[in-house]
Amino acid sequence: MDSVLADDLSRLPELLQAARDFAAEEVTGLADRPVARLDGPPGTVPLPVEGVGAEGALTEFAERWAGGFSGSAGPRYLGFVTGGATPAAVAGDWLTSAYDQNVSGDQDSSASALERQTLGWLRELFGLGSEYGGAFVTGATVSNTVGLAVAREWLGERLGVDVAQEGVAALGPVDVLSGSPHSSIAKALSVLGVGRDRLRAVPLLSGGREAVDVEALAAALEALEGRPAIVVANAGTVNSVDFDDLRAIAALKERHDFWLHVDAAFGGFAALSPSYAHLVDGLDSADSICVDLHKWLNVPYDAAVQFTRRRDLQVRVFRNDSPYLGLPTGEPDFLHLTPENSRRLRALPAWFSLMAYGRAGHREIVERNVTLARALGERLAQAPGLTLVAPVRLNVVCFTLAERPTRERVQALARAIAVSGEAFVTPTVLNGTHALRAAFSNWRTTRADTERVLETVVTATEALTTAVGP
Fold first, then answer.
1. CA-angle at 74, arms to 73 and 78, nearest 5°
2. What pTM did the predictor assign?
3. 17, 92, 316, 359: which could join 352 in a potential S-S bond, CB 3.0 to 4.6 Å?
4. Pick from 194, 212, 204, 290: nearest CA to 252
């Protein structure tokens, strides 16, 4: 064994304590560190010939790299839809690395059983029945890809084609219908060989809504003249957190033949609150479902789940036939359910957080985030020089400059907010208008944080309008 490696092994408790102390200092200081860092990375250094050991590596990281990391785990990072990591989830994530389980099968470990229990808890959380099988994946993109891969296999079943064996070319053109699909849907269709151009936009409800017009969807399905199709519904769009009427869409199956995939990446967590659960009414009618966990469940990156009613088709797509791995059985190993063979135990941080805080604790996070988002929306709507571009339906505030919201001006506002170090929001375009999004999904965010964000946005807006005119 290399002498440096041997020395690190002999000092492992001391080294882990040093890493623990450094991590604790970083996490407890999140509220005060800059939320975003725009000053660029440090210069590169050559790969060392002789290693410096774990302690030396920690020192090098602390001195050269740590200061440039964003405060994305903190309470005022409102870009994208980014959760933090609850204390219990962090503890679970550390143990995930320490145990280093490969959750491809359950021949030698109870880790797969823990993942199945966690999936059962999540099914219960979202109001899904036991007929839904699931698995952990890296994020919403892979979750959507898995769901649409199973949908593709279902299309083959309807048309007498075994796509997994014969290839997607044997299937012919596929029709995928959606109102406001997330960009990962088009990416998944590209990966699956279906093609981005097969994604057909269906008209939305009037009034600037992002929810699909169910009557227009029915007409689009009618125009297929009986050909089976895939419908992608949304439970929480990225910009305005709009929800398709899942129950009404599912009812169309009485007249039309389609697979219903629901992208509930973060909106699915509305199910935790009696006040908002109606938004996901009908989720239990879906054939496949995507839910991200490193968003509103507040577990570390990367973690998401996928659910489907047709595990048999899922196995047909993803099975890995090998003598040393074994064939899928009645309870197939996870390596037969996702693109990965080797799999990190992503379930453990989620298990820790669910066990530690339960349904009530995670419901409180959801409801507090929604309350804070609505409060910020009300204040921004009254602020000089700003306007909302969509109502605050759940946890995202979509706003822009009241005058001349050009791409350049809105981007300049976003940069000014980030440079302040007080907050971070991300740009978007909604109904042709350039805007900014403030997405609340972090467990640490408080009313005081929201006030700091408001002050930062208002100050940056005043500076922008003063510098270049209204």
1. 90
2. 0.96
3. 92
4. 212
